[in-house]
Amino acid sequence: MSNIKIVDAPEGLEGSGFFATSLDKAIGLARSYSLWPLPFATSCCGIEFMATMGSNYDISRFGAERPSFSPRQADLLMVMGTIAKKMGPVLKQVYLQMAEPRWVIAVGACASSGGVFDSYSVLQGIDRVIPVDVYVPGCPPRPEQIIDGLMQVQHLAQNESLRRRNTEEYKALLESYKVL
Q1: Which residues pair with 39 in a beta bridge?
Q2: pTM for this one?
Q3: DSSP tag of 40
Q4: Is 115 annotated to bind ligand?
Q5: What are the C-alpha distances in Å from 143 to residues 43, 52, 105, 108?
Q6: Contact indicator for 110, 137 with CB cutoff of 8 Å
Q7: 139 appears as a binding residue in the annotation
Q8: Beta strands in the chain, from DSSP E residues, in sequence order
Q9: Is 124 a known ligand-binding residue?
């Protein structure tokens, strides 16, 4: 499951075991089980998220039991439901106010691609204004699917390099998103 191993002590440190792993892996393991989600729910997918937080599905098993309603205290943005084009700049501002590293889950067909609402006022996918890490399909998706999306973000957090967010490619990607 993890890459942390207890190995025999080198000469001179007999009798005590020590951890041998890279700092990236230890920090990734800690980050993956302490995600603080920020629910950005606008319609029916938000109700499914509420069910996911309930006792039947218990999202707290995955270390995400503290939903934050302040972007400065969250590191996982969960966008659920229909996003109007007028909400695009607000969504981007919320994303930029979040702590680094930050991850984004697009929950449902509306957040992923606009859903059945192909109109002038609906944003045809949030990936036009912010980068998305995991897409959860469905209209609305089941709580099991939302949990699976959270587990995929945990996998990303465990295996992500500490330096990825500081690369020029990542900074160029953020600059490429236009505000509508």
Answers
A1: 78
A2: 0.79
A3: E
A4: no
A5: 15, 5, 14, 11
A6: no
A7: yes
A8: 5-7, 18-20, 37-41, 76-80, 103-107, 134-136
A9: no
Instruction: Please tell me the distance from the alpha carbon of residue 91 to that of residue 94, in angstroms, as a whole number.
Output: 5
Structure tokens at 155: 């996998």
In this structure, CATH architecture of domain 39-150+167-180: 3-Layer(aba) Sandwich (3.40)
Q: Which residue ranges make up each domain of the chain?
A: 39-150+167-180
Quick: pLDDT tens for 136-170.
998 888 989 989 999 999 898 888 877 777 788 87
Helix (H, G, I), strand (E, B) or coil at 135: strand
> Which sign does the torsion angle of CA 171, 34, 58, 2 carry?
positive
Indicate the length of the chain as a whole number: 180
Tell me the pLDDT tens digit for each residue of 52-105.
Answer: 887 787 787 777 777 788 888 888 999 998 999 999 999 999 999 998 888 999
